[in-house]
Amino acid sequence: MGTQIKEYIPCESLRPFVELFWEGSFNMHATGSMSMQMIPNGCLELIIHLNDLHCDLENNNIWSQTPDYMILGLITQPCEVRFKNCVSVFAIRFKPEGIYNIFGVPSSLLMESYEDMSTVLGRGFQDFCHRLKEKIDIVSMIRHTENYLLKNLQDKKIGLNYVNLAAELIRNTKGVRIKDLCSRLFISQRQLEREFKDKVGISPKHYLRIIRINEVLRLLNEDHVIDLTGVAYQCGYYDQAHFIKDFKKITGQKPTIFMMDKEQFISNPGLAHYID
Fold first, then answer.
1. pLDDT in tens, 208-266
2. Which of 46, 214, 235, 255 is paired with 222 by a 20 to 30 Å CA distance?
3. 103 is in which domain, residue-wise?
4. Residue 171 and residue 218: Cα distance in Å, rounded?
């Protein structure tokens, strides 16, 4: 398919807010147009195009070329993306509650859509992007990005709250029950669901489903032996029918079909590594 993606873990101070950084090239051979399905990963992607060649996405039922600096909001179902040429990008993957802490923008405002991030954040962000594209290697790009994000985090001074804690617990304990989560945080389920939806855009239970399926995808990517039943159980599923239903809803395909056609999907459940 001509796709290459490499992921990098951010510095420790940013990890509560940023899942990872990644660089990617799509339709590398550019022998014709290419269409792929992007799988929901429970995060927001700030995608910075490194040249004048962009992908095409549908927004409000209209297909159009994506902006130079695009924020792709949290999606809950597969999203088609088209590449007419070779597209090269650098991206920041924000945890859904993390983008609010750094930029003051609730994830809920960006649900199922994308926006031009330069219009959202203005001149300072544009200057950051212009300087980023001048960097000669990925290490320099990441260091520049980390400095920019840490400066914004310091200026915003938005503290961690129980939405952050709940989201992190969901990511770390894929089999957690929502009522047990509320007990651990000493808040009511109704209060958590209301605040979580206001900040993140979906309910904690819906977010848990996305995280579980992405953990399934991560384990399948790591393991050469495909044991769907064992992987599903490891990710908190004790009912095969429930697992298949969630998998199909989030990826658009049954697990067996997805595994046969993996190259047709942009599935990045988080296989990051440290930079030297």
1. 999 999 988 888 877 655 678 888 888 888 888 999 999 999 999 998 888 888 888 88
2. 46
3. 4-156
4. 13
